[in-house]
Design goal:
single chain; about 700 residues; 3 helices; 61 strands; elongated; disordered N terminus
Length: about 700
């Protein structure tokens, strides 16, 4: 047995040291570039529409560079407000190059469409000029623009106020039906079957990701096809509109078009055969009474008291954005101390059904819609009393945010004030008076944790003697948290009658994995002792393996570990267990305080002294340590998205992407080879840990028997 125990750390250490990455650079070029001028007159300032197709992904923070011929005059003051159609982080001008840093992610094959609205002046002489476009990850392509004699009539010139816009509602955020026209075509233009009409909306957010051709009519006939790209919609002309010298476009409400979320004045542009037609100005009102999708919603609380445990209920309408089965709903609370570290999905109801998953990250709670959930934009959320969400600890006005499919709504302000009105339980018997800590100060070096039973696999009571609290605890609101290490069996529910604090029965007991949260029924002032007695009837069971185990103590009001004590299980003298002697393999340096740690074949991780469950235990495959995608999200607080086929781990602008079943991953735009393929276990993708840590700037260490990760 001793030989077997020593073999595992050696395998683990060698697995963590292996980093067999091979980068395979590839070259790509953009496709189907189309550059068109709004005004092609020589010496005239013009808007420029740029369209092309990506051959490689373009991530937020990457750049698109548009280079105009030297004869163009490019204003140095072009800014992101002069770019429409895509989300822009910043714009720089270098000579005749306009360098646009995007603020959204695009995938290979996406059509990019945007407009440079101001700052470009055409050459003074007529002729044909080049405009080239490239991205950070793809080489350039060029298109030619014909500039005509100054003052001449241009096929591309726009005529303002060419047609009317009719909306079913003018309220901000509403889903609407929409009619454009009648638009009289210029000159001898007539519609031709299979030709394209492009409609450019003032904001990308007005459009869904796709529109069905059944929901769009051209001159009363169903469109042949419809495609959405950025803020533009390309419509193929059906045979029923062939040879017409006008355009009337109708979008049904089912198309999913949504009014801008801000009240303002807007125009819509329609382009056909090189000519751009601009609509009359239409106004959207911010607080329209007919709005179906309001930017704000009302939050109802069961208890508005300061620091009180409470339920939260609200109804929100996300307009064109729908929450679907297995989709994610993000709740953002005013502060992180309102949210317990571990949540139970059944405590969160979405349209009356329990969420499939609930995860806490700081002040954010990520909920996954349950299996069989019917897709809808209207969502009713109930955060039950059992979720143990508490109010802010300072009186004032607060808001709650909710996000679905990238659309974030913010609630109306709700007030927190007064004091908690949590019901008081039956008066306890035999209360004891807290004993002051000696004047020498608070010192928990002599604090103790003792088991009433140290036999393997047996129920045990636990007695915790805290010598002094640095910060006092308020009854029924604050808690003492006892963290049992992996190996102990902690029941999902413990009756308050089975735990006492200073001789008084607990007000409430919450169990979160291996953590037991004890809410006292009486105030415990600072610098006083707190004796916690957990009865064997609480059904906490000792580990089945003989060893020394560390039990940790925290409180809700103090940062960091209060103290931890080793207890011996299966040893002859449980009252005085011998401290574990460091093995030669253990490092002499301290483990970083900000590290998250885990053990191979143990389905949990530890962060700041607290233990949290993992869906699947980490394991070793060959020489590679595999961890669940959940670890990066919950232990390292990295933005992590996964499903049964793919995983993305994001840190700032860096993205590592995996495909289930594949040995190839992407770091940014570069393909790398993995030592072993990503696999799916119990619905959770298992990832080679070093691929993520080495590429996102994290370090991995080992202190037998734990692996720890830190930055």
């Amino acid at each position: 047995m001793e030989k077997s125990k020593k073999a595992l750390p050696i395998v683990l250490a060698s697995a963590l040291a292996a980093t067999p990455f091979v980068a395979v650079p590839q070259a790509y070029a953009i496709e189907k570039l189309d550059v068109s001028a709004d005004n092609d007159g020589a010496g005239k300032e013009s808007e420029y529409d740029i369209k092309f197709t990506l051959e490689e992904d373009l991530d937020s923070g990457d750049t698109i560079t548009v280079e105009f011929d030297d004869d163009f005059d490019v204003d140095k003051k072009i800014s992101k407000k002069d770019i429409s159609g895509i989300d822009v982080k910043r714009v720089e001008v270098d000579g005749n190059e306009v360098i646009i840093t995007v603020d959204e992610d695009f995938d290979e094959g996406d059509k990019i469409s945007f407009t440079i609205k101001n700052g470009i002046t055409n050459p003074d002489d007529k002729g044909t000029y080049d405009v080239s476009v490239e991205t950070e990850n793809e080489s350039s392509d060029k298109d030619k623009v014909e500039i005509k004699k100054s003052g001449s009539s241009s096929n591309n010139s726009k005529s303002k106020n060419d047609y009317s816009v009719t909306l079913s509602s003018k309220a901000a955020g509403d889903k609407v039906s929409l009619k454009l026209g009648k638009i009289s075509l210029k000159g001898s233009d007539e519609l031709e079957t299979n030709s394209t009409i492009t409609v450019t909306f003032p904001e990308k957010g007005m459009l869904p990701s796709s529109i069905d051709e059944d929901d769009v009519k051209v001159n009363g006939t169903k469109a042949k096809s419809v495609s959405v790209s950025g803020s533009s919609v390309d419509i193929k002309i059906p045979s029923g509109a062939d040879s017409d010298d006008y355009i009337t476009l109708e979008f049904d409400k089912a198309a999913g078009i949504e009014n801008p979320s801000s009240g303002d004045k807007y125009v819509i542009k329609v382009k056909y055969d090189g000519t751009t037609y601009e609509s009359d100005t239409f106004e959207i009102t911010k607080n329209g009474s007919s709005s179906n999708a309001s930017d704000s919603f009302t939050v109802n609380l069961s208890d508005p008291g300061v620091g009180a445990r409470t339920s939260y209920t609200f109804d929100a309408d996300f307009g064109s954005k729908e929450l679907k089965e297995d989709g994610e709903l993000i709740l953002e609370f005013p502060s992180s101390d309102m949210v317990p570290g571990i949540l139970t999905a059944s405590d969160f109801l979405i349209n009356g059904k329990a969420a499939r998953k609930a995860t806490a990250i700081g002040n954010r709670v990520a909920l996954v819609a349950p299996t069989g959930f019917k897709a809808t934009s209207k969502v009713k959320v109930e955060v039950t009393y059992g979720a143990w969400i508490s109010n802010p600890k300072t009186a004032g006005s607060y808001t709650l945010k909710a996000t679905v499919s990238g659309r974030t709504l913010e609630s109306k302000s709700f007030s927190i004030g007064g004091s908690s009105v949590t019901p008081t339980p039956t008066n306890p018997t035999n209360p004891t008076t807290p004993v002051p800590v000696p004047n020498t100060g608070i010192n928990n070096s002599t604090a103790t944790i003792a088991l009433t039973q140290n036999a393997l696999g047996k129920q045990t009571g636990v007695n915790v003697a805290i010598k002094g609290l640095g910060v006092g605890l308020q009854k029924q609101r604050d808690f003492i948290e006892i963290v049992f290490p992996v190996g102990y069996k902690v029941p999902a529910y413990i009756a308050p009658a089975n735990i006492s604090v200073n001789g008084v029965g607990a007000n409430f007991v919450a169990v979160r994995g291996q953590n037991v949260l004890i809410y006292p029924s009486q105030d415990i002032p600072a610098a006083t002792v707190a004796n916690i007695a957990i009865n064997p009837a609480a059904n906490i069971v000792n580990p089945a393996v003989k060893n020394t185990y560390s039990i940790s103590v925290f409180t809700s009001e103090e940062r960091g570990l209060l103290f931890a004590r080793a207890v011996g299980v299966g040893m002859p003298s449980p009252a005085q267990p011998k401290p574990a002697t460091p093995t030669p393999q253990q490092p002499s340096t301290a483990i970083p305080a900000n590290s998250a740690s885990f053990k191979v074949n143990t389905a949990s991780f530890t962060l700041h002294g607290k233990t949290y469950p993992l869906a699947v235990a980490p394991y070793i495959e060959g020489n590679t340590t595999m961890v669940p995608a959940q670890f990066f999200k919950e232990a390292l607080a990295l933005t992590t998205q996964w499903n049964n086929t793919s995983v993305a781990v994001i840190s700032g602008t860096k993205v590592v992407k995996f495909t289930v079943g594949s040995k190839t991953a992407k770091v940014g735009k570069t393909d790398i080879q993995l030592p072993t393929p990503v696999v799916l276990k119990n619905g959770m993708p298992m990832i080679p840990i070093r691929t993520v840590t080495d590429n996102l700037g994290y370090k991995v260490g080992w202190a037998a028997p734990s692996v720890y990760v830190y930055k």
